[in-house]
């Protein structure tokens, strides 16, 4: 089977992606937290917020793997606090994990991805915001821009796309209210499987024509006109 690498697959969207791909691909998971599920073939423990740890993990994987079909940059973190309470450390932590890590892994593994895919999990917050989310929104906006930049640099060799989820319920213990479902033109809050299925769809495209694009998967919310 072809090798596909996923970051941050221990829970949430990453777990759902791993579950959707497990029977079709040889899955390589990188995460700081050991998954409690079994939807992977190889696991590399790595604190992706630390550049030295990333460098060592890249070295280990390159020793073990000679080719990749897919790189799914999913790992990320969210900080939500008033602007006046945000620190430079907050900014640096979010940018490092959400934007720098996808760049470093794409840079390192692009040579192994001939006729393969890089899929970046961005966010609708790349183009819309609520107060107090500056580091996260900036990181996801940067990730969408990184996506189209990579698609040009790797043209003809690697298809590079991003997916921008809206509200995806990653809490398996939470049931959204009727009002929360009704807010979505789709009639429901998003599920992690919605994103996983789209990742699988992109990986199944083998002719390379779909590249350089950001796909919004948000139940239609970002197209909804809202007045005060």
Question: Can you tell me about this structure?
Answer:
The protein has six helices and nine strands, in the order E-H-E-E-H-E-H-E-H-E-E-H-E-H-E. The chain has one domain (3-223): 3-Layer(aba) Sandwich (Rossmann fold). Strand 5, helix 4 and strand 6 form a beta-alpha-beta unit. The chain is α/β, with parallel strands linked by helices and 228 residues long. The model has no long low-confidence stretch (mean pLDDT 96). Helix 1 packs across helix 6 (192-203). The longest helix has 22 residues, at 88-109. It is globular, with a radius of gyration of 17 Å. It has helices spanning 12-21, 51-64, 88-109, 134-153, 178-182, 192-203; strands at residues 3-7, 26-31, 42-45, 70-73, 116-121, 158-165, 168-169, 190-191, 214-217. It is 36% helix and 18% strand.
Class computed from helices, strands and strand pairing: alpha/beta
Cα distance spanning the termini: 52 Å
Report the order of strands and helices: EHEEHEHEHEEHEHE
- Biggest sheet statistics: 7 strands, parallel
Number of helices: 6
Helicity, in percent? 25-40%
Give the overall silhouette: globular
Number of strands: 9
Query: What percentage of the residues does DSSP assign to strands (E)?
Result: 15-25%
Q: Which stretches are poorly predicted, pLDDT < 50 over at least 5 residues?
A: none
Count of domain modules: 1
- On the 0 to 100 scale, the average pLDDT is 96
Strand order of the largest sheet: 3-2-1-4-5-6-9
Write the layout of secondary structure elements.
Elements: E1 3-7, H1 12-21, E2 26-31, E3 42-45, H2 51-64, E4 70-73, H3 88-109, E5 116-121, H4 134-153, E6 158-165, E7 168-169, H5 178-182, E8 190-191, H6 192-203, E9 214-217
Parallel strand pairs: 1-2, 1-4, 2-3, 4-5, 5-6, 6-9, 7-8
Helix pairs in contact: 1-6, 3-4
